[in-house]
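Form P-L/3: holo structure prediction, ligand magnesium ion.
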Amino acid sequence: MARLELRDITKRFGRAVAVDRVSVEVTDGEFLTLLGPSGCGKTTTLRIIAGLVDPDEGEVLLDGKPVQHFPAHRRQTAMVFQSYALFPHMTVSENIGFGLRMRALPADLIQRRVGEALALVELEGLSDRYPRQLSGGQQQRVAVARAIVTRPKVLLFDEPLSNLDAKLRERLRLELRALQQRLGVTTVYVTHDQAEALALSDRVAVMFGGKVVEIGTPRQVYRTPRVRVTAEFLGVTNFLDGKVAAVADGHYIVQTPLGIVEADAALGVRVGEVVTLSFRPEDVRIGRYEGTAITGRVLHASYLGSVTDYVVESGGITLRVHEAGGSARGAGEEITITLPATAAIVRGG
Ligand SMILES: Nc1ncnc2c1ncn2[C@@H]1O[C@H](COP(=O)(O)OP(=O)(O)O)[C@@H](O)[C@H]1O
Ligand SMILES: [Mg+2]
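OUTPUT (holo model):
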């Protein structure tokens, strides 16, 4: 059992606020990702959890008990870094067993646990190699094994896949998720890569400027973001301003310059209020369907393989529209598009 809680954590470096009143609860066995652009305070937050950095204010609690006074090696957390940080002069098994030798466990127990960890990351055949004799992906597996072998209550990952090429990153992403679920260990994962965050996490905490601006399941933060920066950071989106004309069946009817669009009923929005809608390029359909259909003109078409990405202009407003597969529509062409059945209402600048 391990429930992690950050309560009002603040960390300043000089006058700059790196982490700004961050409160997050990670439930037992949960995989939570801190997602945000470079410099938003992700690493600092993770290092505070690990006990490598002291916060100026706030508390870190494990299973409801403050761990502030415990040094890093007594926190029962283990961290995997982007740079792997393996010991170059130690073999794979020596690297993995390092934390156990520091704890002065009996040699046969160390050997057994190292063997188990090697099997979990599928590196059994490579135990006597040195880090320089391994590929990047294998080195990262060693780093993961070294973290889990100590049986931490909380696993921490700081952009562990960022140094790998795209194909390998995707494969290790699947492996990491499967491993975390098998171990059931509470995990905090840091990345600036939205696809990684969506694919791996039970929940995503979106960070900007030291603050957690939004927390939700991958589907919630992608489909129904509550703040504008979340919608913007998580892929391509369309923003469209409009006025709430009515509330019906838990939906808002929003009058936009392009026509009526419905929105999920968000807390605290009133009839008559001007709101910003956010919807994804894949929510706009080319053709006439039920809903608001409008005509527009293709300004640009980019073939991206699985979809074609269009910039479409209608009534002075440009929209991004995705259509599955390739298409012969070119710049200048008039097309009919149907606006999404529902959009999200977002707040903030
Ligand atoms: N040891 C430090 N001294 C001074 N400033 C720091 C230090 N560590 C981080 N910062 C600053 O704090 C902010 C957050 O950094 P960091 O947590 O590393 O962000 P991220 O991991 O999201 O890229 C940045 O502006 C960074 O420059
Ligand atoms: Mg970082």
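COMMENT: The longest strand covers residues 16-26.
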